[in-house]
Predict the 3D structure of the following.
Amino acid sequence: MSMHQLTIDVFDAAAFVATAGVTVGEPMSFADELVMDDVYQLSDRAVLHPLALNSGADGLQRADPPHHDVHLDCCLTLMGKDGGTHDVLILVEVAAGTVAAIYLLPLGELIPNLEYRLVGIARHAATRRFAEAASGSFARGTHITMADGAQRTIETLRNGDLVLTRDAGKRPIRWIGQATLRATGSFAPVVISKGALNNENDLVLRPDHRLFVYQRADEIGVGRSEVLLKARHLVNGETVVRRRGGFVDYFQLIFDEHFIIYAEGIAAESHLVDPQTRAALPAEAGMLNHRHDLSRAYEVKDHLLPTADAARLLRKASAS
C-alpha cells in the first residue's frame, strides 16, 4: 500500500488549558469532552513541534515507530477578546484502543497568555480542513512553464491550459485550487532564493511541497541520481529560509496524473490526489485517482538528507 508522508506543526494539548468555565484547569481535549464558551490560554512555554505522519487509504499514522494511528477528531473555532476567530484542528493519537496523545494543529497564530473562548465545534469539518492544510502548494506569483515554453504566473492559469511536464509532454490542467492562509507554523512558506537551485527567481512554496532534482553526481549520497525531496529539508537559514508573518495565497495544480512540472525553472511535483487530500477537492477533481505516486520511485526519506547542506549539495550535483 502506498503511503505519503507529511509533516505538520502542532502543540501538545496539555499546553492549552481552560482558565474559565466548566472545565477550568483541564487541558484541551477531543470534542466529546469540550464545553462551549469555556476559555483557554496557551502556556508561554508552549512550543510548536513537528509531527510526521504517514497518510494512506487507512488514514493517518505516526511516521515513527510504533506507528500509532492518529485520528482527526474535530475543527474548533476560538474567539479572541478582540472578536477575531481562530480555527484549530484536534488530532488524537491512539495506542491499543486508548488515547496516547492529543495535539492542536492551529490554522493561524495562537499567542501565549491570551484568552480564547470556544465558540464552535465542527466534527465533520476536520477532514476537509486537514486536507487543505496537507496540500502541497505554490505561492501567488510563481512562474509555471507552459507547453509552448512561456512563463506564466500561477494565478493567471485556467483549467485546460497546457503545461509542460517532465515525462509526459504537454498536459492540460484539470483543476486549480486556492487557499489564503496565515503564514505561521505549518503554513509559513519556504523561500528558495534566486540561484539556490539554479533558479532565476525566488520560488515560494509550502514546506512539504516536493522538488525533483536530477543529480549528475550523487552529492547527497542516496544511491540514485533522480530524487524527490521536500522544500523544508532544504532550509539552511541563508539561501533557503522560512518566511513567517502575514498571509500567503497558495495554489494547487491538478492534472489527470501526478506529474513533474516546472516552477521558476525548478522541477517540482503537481498536486497529488490521494485519500487524504481528496477531501479538500470539489467533486469533479475528487473523482481523479492518481495511480502513479512519484514518491514510490524518487522520494528521499527524511533521515537520509544532510539538511543543513542539502541545498548547496543539490545545486552542485545538478550543475556538475
In short: The CA atoms of residues 212 and 218 lie 14 Å apart. The mean pLDDT is 85. The chain is about 10% helix and 40% strand. The first strand starts at residue 4 and ends at 12.
